[in-house]
């Protein structure tokens, strides 16, 4: 019970790094002695101190000696040095400051750690307990875990839909299907991921900005990504006119030299990729290029045809559909090209979550492959937290 209480606190601290630590994980840490929190910290920015060190530093600044304390940490402490790593091993800091017990949520799936942090601590005579609030810790670090495991960005498909599954009317109107608070939540989703993507149809019909616009925004702007064979973007669109200040990228297959120089001059990075079997830009190649360029996570915001391609190719980890009790009838659906013969054969999301935003219900779930990879990190008998 006590372990869960302090781990929940460490998880809350970890979430403050959202949007700032990629490609590192979100990590929070709390130092406790005699039932008192004597230090706390989190990984606040990429290259900055790790959560464990931040908690130790915080304790020392308060005049608290960490010797003999228990450290609650949402992820296994790192155990290695490398030329590309900014911080010394946290296992060394834990040992040298005389911490007696370490309680962890999950093992770090990074192959350079994966259990070696725990082994080093045990070798030093430190008691280690694992698996506390593991499910919640895994949920918090889905992007970190799944992008590493699959060597591509963590892909979230997000759309707003009517009760009959439409993303827009037949005449392409979609403003607005969901409630204002659902749309505010969508901006938080953008802020927590590295990139946001749309197809050229959405760029043309909606002229989106694809920026994070939350109250007191604390997130950096994600990379804006558009896919279009010939780079069909209007020169007065937000994507083009804001490209000199907000990183914007186009993936295309056959752009004319004129259009390419016009978009490049506006500040858009134009990247040619191979066509797929339908002569559209290969989304596998797009995702690979993004991953190789350091993009760990991407939110795909439509429209219907782009979502349909990704659904058909199974190229997603999580789908979040904001569902509103309105009927659009003969509208655009992302699922029109799916034809399962039976309910049993239909694609089904796992580990579903439901949240309410005013009149909108968001339904979110995992691709079965993603769920399996995440479940591997959750011990059978989890000392669980409150539901996420
Ligand atoms: N409710 C919501 O959450 C939501 C969100 C976004 C959009 N919408 C609505 O959705 C509608 C737009 O959807 P849409 O289906 O017409 O367009 P879309 O999915 O945004 O864009 C499709 C276009 O993207 C390009 N594309 C490039 N590579 C692709 C690939 N591999 N797979 C699929 N498309 C690729 C193609 O055009 P090129 O010829 O340029 O290559 C394709 O025609 C609008 O009405 C908008 O309001 C709704």
UniProtKB/TrEMBL annotation:
For the ligand (substrate), the binding residues are 174, 190, 206, 210, 213, 301
Keyword Nucleus: yes or no? no
Instruction: Please list the cofactors this protein needs.
Output: Zn(2+)
- Residue ranges annotated as transmembrane are none
Details of cofactor binding: Binds 1 zinc ion.
GO biological process: what's one of them? Answer: riboflavin biosynthetic process
- Which superkingdom does the taxonomy of this entry point to? Bacteria
Which PROSITE patterns does this chain map to?
Answer: CYT_DCMP_DEAMINASES_2
For the ligand (Zn(2+)), the binding residues are 50, 78, 90
Keywords assigned: Hydrolase, Metal-binding, Multifunctional enzyme, NADP, Oxidoreductase, Riboflavin biosynthesis, Zinc
Gene3D superfamilies noted in UniProt: Cytidine Deaminase, domain 2, Dihydrofolate Reductase, subunit A
**Active site per the UniProt annotation:** 52 (proton donor)
Recorded family membership:
In the C-terminal section; belongs to the HTP reductase family.
- What is known about what this protein does? Converts 2,5-diamino-6-(ribosylamino)-4(3h)-pyrimidinone 5'-phosphate into 5-amino-6-(ribosylamino)-2,4(1h,3h)-pyrimidinedione 5'-phosphate.
| Name by which UniProt lists this protein | Riboflavin biosynthesis protein RibD
Q: Which organism is it from?
A: Spirochaeta africana (strain ATCC 700263 / DSM 8902 / Z-7692)
